[in-house]
Specification:
Strand content: 35-45%
Order of helices and strands: EEEEEEEEEEEEEEEHEHHEE
Mean pLDDT: 90
Number of helices: 3
Strand order of the largest sheet: 3-2-1-4-5
Low-confidence stretches: none
Radius of gyration: 27 Å
């Protein structure tokens, strides 16, 4: 039987006015239609044509010579063409848009935006998209510790952190202890590989090494102090939650930045304040 959701070579077994029927060698009874507008000029019975198999609007298997953005098991970023009553429809390069059910969305998508999805066959034997891409990600990346990588956040967890598809295909995690700032589903990030697990999955940080990051963090702290008109209503013993809310930093990164500013005599710390030193 021709394989749904895959590109394959099938033989022309019958010609009709509205197209040609294709089948695998020796299995002519299990045939699928290639519409006339898709049939290459001069095609004859016995010719072999490379096609992709999907289902039409009546849920019937149909072949096309066009190449979709994804085949079964592949992952890619697709634009949202429409939002329907039970899900979204994605443009994947074929006449019929690809269905993304609401239950397969890790966040509600909007028309005009793009999202990272995998192509799978559902229980009703239909091609669908899912934003739950974790099972489809690879663990054989070429990256090593301290390499710089790019990826898309596809899921977040209060317990574990932010899950990332590096290069759109490799499994990675920004651990909870490294999750600071705006790390939302769908965001494209650039990160540093902090480790490669025995199973091949990557651990990432979106921050440089602490000594490289310190100057940037110090300037960020000064910017926030300026926004508070030169006086923060807390000192360096403030809770990690407040630090993350106001600066998007870990407590250790915040204390390193404050230490740098103190050394440069740009701030002073009192019992309950951090104040900018006024220029003379």
């Amino acid at each position: 039987m021709p394989k749904l959701g895959e590109i394959q070579e099938l033989k022309v077994v019958k010609k009709v006015e509205f197209g040609v029927y294709l089948a695998e060698e020796g299995r002519e009874e299990e045939r699928v239609l290639l519409p006339a507008k898709q049939v290459p000029e001069g095609t004859a019975i016995g010719d072999v044509i490379s096609v992709f198999l999907y289902k039409d609007s009546r849920d019937r298997p149909i072949a096309t010579t066009r190449r979709p953005a994804l085949t079964v098991g592949q992952i890619g970023v697709l634009p949202v063409a429409e939002i329907g009553r039970i899900g979204a429809f994605l443009d994947w390069g074929l006449e019929k848009d690809l269905f993304l059910p609401f239950r397969e969305q890790t966040r509600r998508v909007r028309k005009g935006e793009s999202c990272l999805v995998a192509l799978y066959i559902d229980k009703s034997d239909r091609l669908c998209a899912t934003m739950n891409v974790y099972p489809y990600l690879r663990t054989d990346s070429p990256y090593q510790k301290d390499d710089t990588v790019k990826g898309i956040i596809y899921e977040t967890s209060q317990q574990f952190g932010a899950f990332v598809a590096v290069d759109g295909c490799f499994s990675a995690l920004i651990p909870k202890k490294e999750c600071f700032g705006d790390l939302e589903i769908g965001k494209e990030i650039e990160g540093r590989v902090t480790g490669v697990k025995p199973d091949g999955k990557l651990d990432l940080s979106v921050r440089a090494k602490s000594w490289e990051q310190m100057d940037a963090d110090a300037e960020l702290v000064m910017q926030v102090i300026d926004e508070f008109e030169g006086v923060l209503p807390f000192n360096d013993r403030v809770s990690p939650e407040v630090i993350n809310r106001e600066f998007g930093l870990s407590k250790n990164a915040f204390k390193r930045a404050v230490g740098r500013l103190l050394k440069e005599k740009r701030i002073v710390i009192t019992e309950n304040r951090i104040m900018k030193v006024k220029e003379k």
